[in-house]
From TrEMBL, chain B:
This is WD repeat domain-containing protein 83. GO terms for molecular function: molecular adaptor activity. WD repeats lie at residues 13-54, 55-96, 97-138. Keywords: Cytoplasm, Repeat, WD repeat. It comes from Drosophila melanogaster (Fruit fly).
Length: 952, 308
């Protein structure tokens, strides 16, 4: 019993276990715990805890099942544009909720958001843009321009400041005079110093007035020059809330690396390197972005294991407050906009500040910005109008009479006499001028800058603004005065355009009532009224103004009269117009008849026989030839054709003329017998040569002309000259030339008429190699048997018709010839090489040839006897009876493709296998054929090059 | 010669299809078509004013329409550059013919409705084979140098009036194109029943009667006002009177021979241009289009009384 009394019990005891009963209530296993949303639906699905419920229980169906979408014709609603579906339309309610994919909440607008938030958002936007379906532009991916250019947008606060006249770099506050400013800077620097050395709770600064004295004597006259205050970091004096010693802050309760330590106004403690990163991490935690994986709903968030030990990790009391707090915080945070945190400081009763607004203040939403190209709002347009009017007329200063000027200058009401005696001058101008000069003299780098006014427009100068303001003030005053005046001096004129100037207005009213129209009379009339002080120019201007004003500010009746016309008048006018007899134009009928061919089908449909039995000439043959009529046909409708600008006789042929024309149609007999169809086909080509007769023809052209009318079989020569591999003849030719040059240089007579045999002697005697080997050798052998008809065979010297020389060579030859004529003494400079040395080249070729020969010999030696039968490998050896035809035809085309060669080799393969050759041999043969094909390719390239050259 | 009887209004139909661009009778005059600026064609019974069918499918204003000889098809021209061949009974477009490079202004059938002829703003006259399913024109005549305003045809000729002031006659039988130059832009062209003459409404507020054979100018009819409107004219079935619309809301009936105004039909007191008209192929009856309305005028008093 005693013991029981001494025991202290905490909590409620568990029910005593009954002996037989095993505890039935098992804790629910984690996997069996299900999170449900407010509708009782399961919130997370999938294999892992983190998943989303998409659609209807993760299906595409509904409670009734899935039905495929039925076809709905959009025909009826073609015009109505479909409402753009947003992703939100496909989301569930919970997706839009706090924990969904697209949480919706209150956010600060971009204009007000702080910088990193803005950046984050723009990043998001960019990410969106990067998605292919959203990238609308032609260039996929990030828009480059957006990357390069970033709109300059100040924060609203900055904008407001700017509109108040603040400029970046300046401080905020009332403008200071020079003296004041100096004091301020001194004070600031001192404070700064104190701040650095003693912290925020440093000693209060003593006022030192030493510096003032020297400045005082410098200048006292420039009181009216004001400067913007300097920008400095203001010092916030925080009230002391604790009872620690001076500048002692105790142990920081926050985690060391947390953000709050850096953001709190304790300067000397800790530099947080990870501030930004941490802040971002925090944000992430705050806004659950719907990541599928991570911390489960039932799991406690892991502790920050990398955080260093600090005091927060220790309990200071037995009660475990922490989780509670956390929950509370979380609940609170839900209603806080991203990037903000709730203020925990106790609410301080703040005295409401009554702001007395300027009288002409007009609230305006700064965010409703208009396009630059949108029409101006009426008010502003008017404002501008008046302002510019003022400027345009250049009369700003003339509008002021001496009284007003006196008012502006702050002079006391002077006697009229003195006012009149004063010379006319613009007080503003002079004053301002001197002011500007003084400012310029004082300050270096003072640049005239615009001031952003309330409307966001930059006023040219402050002066203009001041003048305007002053004027407005005067006008206001004047208006006030006139208000008291007995109204209806002149009842007829409701408008008082010159109300600002009473005298002027009076004059105007008189002028209006006089109803003068003559210019002279008006001047005289006005002269009587105008004060003597008014200059001639002013008088003139006033007259003009009056006339203009009288025009504008007319009584309503007149205005209406001008705008509207009575119906009777209109009718009368119309009748008059009608009555006016329209000028009689003699209509002369003209009839022209032309041939026109209706199409056969049209005739058929009209059940009419085709005119002339369908044998009519068709003028629109080319139109018919086109399969489809394209829009471009109409680009050259009859209006645009050349024929239309000429006499109509050209336009479809006249019947009368067409008959003789027909007789004429067969043109002068063609140079060669030709089928009739060809005549009609090529009328243009025939005409052309006659047109361009003056152009000297190249031999090739001549050949083309000659052979134009020949049958194809006879055109072989032409083709040869065009397409043949001009390698051989060129080499021949060059050699011939070289010889000639050599002979010339040796002083021998040039033997131009050398026989073929003689030339052959001069030729390179080395055996043909590579592709030429295959080209030449059979030719030489078969020369006797089949003389000419090869299409692209080499041309023998005597046969040569068209010799092509590369331009370079020709030029060189010419030059050399020219040089040869001139005596060597007359020429200076290094001598040009007359001809490439032949001798060194020859052995090379020879050597190559030798190598080839030797290779062949080797090949033949090493090859087994059987292989000797395989003559197909080297073309040179082809003389076989079976292949002769094919080979000759193949060889005849000098630029045979390598493919063909390959084919041939393939074709011949079976033969070889038939003969029982080993795979080794076939390999070798393949290699050979490859080599050959390579060579042939080379030759092909060469040929191509030649062709190009010849074309040029 | 029978005496001229005045025309009286028989029916007034509010077509409810925007401005009525053209009114046309069918082949025997029992029905009529109105082409609206709302891109639809409406088939009416002119006697009762009953709307029979609406044909919609054009993409722009319908400028002209014509019924086939058996009244089972309609061909219509539109500013959407296409011609549509409609089935009358189903109201469905059978074929859409596109080759014109500009809006099509006029269309007509030949006598047995095997060929449709159209003229457009692209200065081209196109002949379309209706029998086959060919979608390109059988023949294109591009001689005109300005917009084709009317095409007409008879057994062996195709007439095309153009704003270049010429009436072009394509004689299929002879294989000849005859160009009669008047010199004034022609806004409309009508044939007399005997096919001897053409009635050409000109831009200078004159209707001219042309002789087909010689190409001579037979007569001129003045009195109405054309201004710059596309005013149509017509000839009554007895070939004795010529009708024309006017820009001042009237219609004029001229005597063919002496060119006098027989009747100035006051269609409406509210003005509006009477720009389109159609004459009944058999009776003394006419259709007029003014603004949104279609008017049926007839000399037949009895019907009028019945109506009243």
């Amino acid at each position: 019993m005693d013991e029981e009394e001494h025991l202290h019990r905490f909590g409620t005891p568990l029910p005593a276990l009954q002996k037989d009963v095993v505890p039935a209530k098992k804790p629910v296993a984690i996997e069996d715990q299900i999170v449900k949303d407010e509708n009782g639906k399961r919130r997370f699905h999938g294999a892992f805890t983190g998943g989303f419920s998409a659609g209807f229980w993760n299906t595409v169906g509904s409670l009734e099942g899935w039905t495929p979408q039925t076809f709905k014709s959009s025909r009826g609603e073609r015009a109505s544009s479909k409402a753009q579906l947003k992703p939100e339309d496909f989301m569930d309610q919970e997706d839009l909720g706090e924990f969904g994919i697209a949480p919706q909440g209150i956010r600060t607008r971009d204009e007000f958001a702080n910088e990193d938030e803005q950046k984050q958002r723009s990043d998001q936007r960019r990410r969106k843009l990067m998605q292919p379906e959203l990238g609308v532009g032609a260039i996929p991916g990030l828009p480059v321009l957006e990357q390069l250019l970033r709109p300059v947008r100040d924060k609203v606060a900055v904008r407001i400041l700017k509109s108040m006249g603040w400029k970046p770099g300046q401080g905020v506050g009332p403008r200071q005079t020079r003296k004041e400013k100096r004091q301020a800077t001194a004070r600031n620097s001192k404070e700064q110093y104190l701040m650095e050395h003693y912290g925020a709770e440093g000693l209060p600064s003593n006022k030192e007035n030493k510096g003032e004295e020297d400045s005082n004597n410098e200048d006292e006259d420039d009181e009216d020059i004001t400067f913007a205050p300097d920008d400095y970091e203001p010092i916030f004096y925080t009230p002391k809330e604790n009872r620690f010693g001076m500048s002692y802050s105790g142990l920081n309760r926050d985690p060391i690396l947390s953000k709050s330590s850096s953001s709190s106004a304790k300067p000397m403690q800790h530099i947080n390197l990870f501030g930004e990163m941490e802040a971002q991490a925090n944000k992430k935690q705050l806004s659950i972005r719907g990541q599928a994986f991570g911390v489960g709903a039932f799991e406690e968030e892991d502790e920050d294991i990398y955080a260093r030990d600090d005091m927060t990790r220790y309990d200071f009391s037995l009660a475990d407050k922490k989780p509670k707090q956390k929950k509370q915080q979380h609940v609170q945070q839900r209603h806080v906009i991203d990037g903000f945190s709730e203020d925990n400081s106790p609410a301080v009763l703040q005295r409401p500040y009554a702001i007395d607004l300027p009288r002409d203040f007009q609230p305006r939403n700064w965010l409703q910005r208009r396009s630059r190209f949108a029409p101006m709002d009426k008010e502003r347009a008017q404002k501008l109008e008046t302002a510019s009017e003022y400027k345009r007329s250049g009369l700003g200063r003339h509008d002021l009479n001496p009284d007003q000027r006196a008012q502006i200058l702050g002079e006391q009401q002077q006697e009229e006499k003195t006012a009149e005696e004063q010379p006319k001058r613009n007080p503003f101008k002079d004053h301002s001028k001197s002011l500007m000069e003084r400012i310029n003299a004082r300050t270096e780098g003072f640049t005239k800058g615009g001031v952003i006014t309330e409307n966001g427009e930059e006023q040219q100068t402050e002066l203009a603004k001041e003048v305007k303001e002053a004027n407005a003030a005067i006008q206001e005053r004047a208006a006030l005065k006139t208000k008291d005046l007995p109204s209806a001096m002149n009842s007829s004129s409701a408008f008082k355009p010159f109300i600002a100037d009473e005298a002027k207005q009076l004059r105007y009213e008189k002028f209006v009532s006089s109803k003068l129209t003559d210019d002279k009379e008006i001047t005289e009339f006005l002269a009587r009224m105008q004060p003597v002080t008014l200059s001639l120019w002013d008088r003139e201007m006033e007259k003009k103004e009056f006339i203009q004003a009288a025009k504008i500010y007319r009584p309503l009746v007149g205005l209406m009269n001008d705008r509207f016309v009575s119906e009777a008048n209109v009718q009368a006018e119309k009748v008059e117009q009608q009555e006016k007899p329209p000028e009689e134009r003699k209509i002369v009928m003209e009839r022209t008849k032309t041939m026109w061919k209706p199409t056969a089908l049209l005739c058929k449909r009209y059940n009419i026989a085709e005119p002339f039995g369908g044998a009519m000439l068709e003028p629109e043959k080319e139109l018919k030839a086109k399969a489809k009529i394209s829009v471009f046909d109409y680009l050259e409708t009859s209006v645009n054709t050349k024929a239309n600008f000429e006499t109509p006789s050209i336009f479809p042929k006249h019947i009368e003329k067409s008959i003789p024309e027909k007789v004429e149609t067969p043109p002068s007999p063609p140079p060669a017998p030709q089928p009739e169809a060809e005549i009609q086909d090529k009328p243009n080509t025939k005409e052309e040569p006659s047109k361009h007769t003056f152009v000297p023809k190249t031999p090739l052209e001549q050949a083309v002309d000659e052979s134009r009318n020949k049958p194809i079989s006879e055109k072989v020569d032409l083709f040869k000259s065009i397409f043949e591999d001009s390698d051989e003849e060129e080499t021949e030719l060059s050699e011939q030339d070289k010889l000639a040059i050599l002979q010339e240089s040796f002083g021998l007579p040039v033997t131009s008429t050398t026989s073929a045999a003689a030339q052959n002697v001069l030729r390179n005697t080395s055996p043909p190699r590579g592709i030429f080997a295959s080209l030449f050798s059979p030719k030489i052998k078969d020369a006797a048997k089949e003389p000419a008809p090869t299409k692209f065979g080499p041309i023998e010297g005597s046969k040569l018709k068209i010799a092509y020389k590369p331009r370079k060579e020709r030029l060189r030859n010419d030059r050399e010839l020219a040089m040869a004529e001139v005596a060597p003494e007359d020429i200076y400079g290094p001598k040009l090489p007359t001809a490439p040395p032949q001798k060194p080249a020859a052995p090379e070729i020879q050597a190559e040839a030798n190598i080839d020969d030797r290779l062949q010999q080797l090949w033949q030696q090493h090859a087994p006897k059987k292989r000797k039968a395989e003559k197909w490998v080297e073309k040179k050896c082809i003389s076989g009876s079976e292949d002769s035809d094919a080979s000759s035809s193949n060889e005849s085309s000098s630029s045979d493709s390598s493919d063909d060669n390959d084919k041939r080799s393939k074709l011949s393969k079976p033969k070889k296998s038939h003969k029982g050759s080993s795979s080794k041999k076939s390999k070798k043969s393949k290699l050979k054929s490859k080599k050959k094909s390579k060579k042939s390719e080379e030759s092909k390239h060469k040929a191509k090059k030649k062709k190009k050259k010849s074309k040029h | 010669m029978p005496e001229f009887e005045n025309f009286n209004v028989k029916t007034t139909i509010d077509c409810k299809q925007g401005a009525v661009r053209a009114v046309r009778y069918n082949v025997d005059g029992t029905y009529c078509l109105s082409c609206g600026s709302d891109k639809k064609i409406k088939l009416w019974n002119p006697a009762s004013g009953l709307l029979l069918k609406t044909y919609g499918g054009h993409a722009d204003e319908v400028t002209d329409a014509a019924g086939s000889c058996d009244s089972s098809y309609i061909v219509s021209a539109s500013l959407d550059k296409s011609i549509i061949y409609w089935d009358v009974s189903t109201g469905a477009p059978v074929r859409r013919l596109r080759s014109h490079a500009g809006g099509v202004r006029c269309v007509c059938f030949n006598e047995d409705s095997s060929i449709a002829i159209s003229g457009g703003r692209d200065n081209a006259v196109m002949c379309w084979d209706i029998r086959t399913r060919r979608l390109d024109p059988v023949q294109v005549m591009k001689e005109a140098r300005d917009c084709i305003t009317t095409v007409a045809t008879n057994e062996n000729r195709i007439y095309a009036a153009s704003l270049d002031g010429c009436v072009r006659t394509y004689d299929i039988r002879v294989g000849e194109l005859t160009c009669d130059k008047i010199g004034e832009p022609i806004t409309y062209l009508a044939q007399t029943r005997d096919e001897q003459c053409l009635v050409a409404g000109c831009q200078d507020s004159v209707v001219r009667l042309l002789d087909c054979e010689t190409g001579g100018l037979l007569s001129e009819y003045r009195g109405h006002r054309g201004d710059d409107y596309h005013i149509e004219c017509g000839i009554l079935s007895n070939d004795a009177q010529i009708v024309t619309g006017s820009s001042d809301g009237d219609a004029f009936v001229y005597d063919l021979l002496d060119g006098k105004v027989l009747q100035r039909i006051r269609i409406s007191d509210n003005g509006g241009v009477v720009h389109s008209l159609a004459t009944h192929p058999k009776r003394q009856e006419m259709l007029f289009a003014r603004r949104r309305d279609m008017y049926v005028f007839s000399t037949d008093l009895q019907i009028e009384e019945e109506q009243l």
